[in-house]
Amino acid sequence: MRKFINDPENVVDDMLEGLLLAHSDQLKSVRKDNRALVRADAPVQGKVAIATGGGSGHLPLFLGYVGKGMLDGVAVGDIFASPNPNQMLDATRAIHGGKGVLYIYGNYGGDVMNFDTASELADLENIRVESVVATDDVASMPKSHEQQRRGVAGMFYLYKLAAAKAETGADLDEVKRVAEKANSRVRTMGVALSPCILPAVGHPTFHIGEGEMEVGMGIHGEPGIQHGKIQSADEIAKTLVSSILQDMPIEKGQKVSVLINGLGATPLEELYIVYKAVHTLLEGYGIEVYSRYIGEFATSLEMAGLSVSILNMDEELRELIDVPFHTPFRVQI
Amino acid sequence: MRKFINDPENVVDDMLEGLLLAHSDQLKSVRKDNRALVRADAPVQGKVAIATGGGSGHLPLFLGYVGKGMLDGVAVGDIFASPNPNQMLDATRAIHGGKGVLYIYGNYGGDVMNFDTASELADLENIRVESVVATDDVASMPKSHEQQRRGVAGMFYLYKLAAAKAETGADLDEVKRVAEKANSRVRTMGVALSPCILPAVGHPTFHIGEGEMEVGMGIHGEPGIQHGKIQSADEIAKTLVSSILQDMPIEKGQKVSVLINGLGATPLEELYIVYKAVHTLLEGYGIEVYSRYIGEFATSLEMAGLSVSILNMDEELRELIDVPFHTPFRVQI
Asked: Which EC numbers does the record give (chains A, B) (predicted)?
């Protein structure tokens, strides 16, 4: 197997130990099994706390977004598997600063079930919890079924904007409102060129032929909506952007933020080539790219591929997008 | 070909156009062909300017290190090919703020020849230029031939420390001294698990078998020093760290900085697993990991692999390592 690991069963534990050795100034573990991590200064009193969680194998998603100006805590699952409710509850307890806790996570069956249970358990301890489930992946369900869509890289915007709102001292309802607004205004389309390899399996669990691409493939290898020969970067950008704009029309003159997310093995050079195409297309529609993020934000181990997310901003989101944050994985100043 | 590109001949041009569209607030082009980029606020008067350059395909190396608190300019070559002296000279002219220019680059034939020519051309224009050539790759030449070694990811430390020194207002000799000191105190060992694909070729130009690893392979696929079945992360870390410490003994109680660099396709999860092993080994030797960088710092397109660099710091380097910087690709605060 082409991986830098020890026992495949210990991949997540080894990774978490490395992470805590590296970043103990910014993160702390609140469980013996390290499956709940929080900001080193948690709980932050008088601020709405935000927690997330999900399966491992997507770094910097999820735990890479815990830090100042971003999230307060995270529950960490095995590779591509949901964390359990107790792990979520321990994160929740450790971050609650008296103003309630918002869960933001992606729409996957196990995560929804477990976060709902954690939320009920927190309620018994008089911690008020609200939840916003990210559903930005256009390809995962057709229009009119938006709420059943999966959450992918666009979740970064829910985190970033809700966290920026929480920094202002806003209450839980307000922070939740911003997360919901971000979710309603962001769409993502992805394309994969190669599968990824689960450490415990040792070989790819799905197949993409050499020189082929799968448009709309999910970050766990969920089947896409279009399969064929790989096209040029410009053509691919056009497919992704037009799918997004068909699903969520954006008026001329609007300001957007664009996220070009690498899925693991895609060189940064290629992400910039795709950014050029996306920027040029949007400009052609009269849409202004006000901000952009280019790099790895939500990966699938070593999958070759990328996704494009577009956030259609109103005045409120435009102000929140500029708020600085500081995590071990990414800094915005 | 498994790549997001348009015409393979235009990969670097397309990438640079994307980069300039994305980061025009931080970077500007000083040539029509965009092959010389400098800080948006260049030249910074009264500061020693630092330039680098080299072939493309290694992002964030080289151009990703241009920015505040880091480098002033970069000459950009084609994929894995040196930029030419005129491109270097244009960068030099645009960043010279009256205190001279330091070139820091990796030890590769074409780069050395072209930077030397650029330096002579700059001299004719009364711009004083000094050069420091990075030679951190232990595996590329045996001990006692250190000066013939290649420069790889450890070059990050030369940039970071020399730039921090330049920020203090130090003169060219002092900044050069710090870059040389960093070079003499940093060593890198890499290991590759897969080849990479040159866009203009379309298939790998060298071979690593499935489940095999090549210790000491260069970032352009230069042959390594040890070939065999892939070992566990702990064993690999031991091989890399002991090779470094054999080459550059570090005394108990010393403070080091560690760089775990992904070569392209290696998941961040695995870099943290290796970090855990490296940290634990060094701790066992009584060496303190004072700072660490974990991520992609010098890649080889989509090569799977990683390198470990260790910087043995004295008091001066320890102070300089903490100085903030801000580039489009990386921020330290």
From this structure: 2.7.1.121
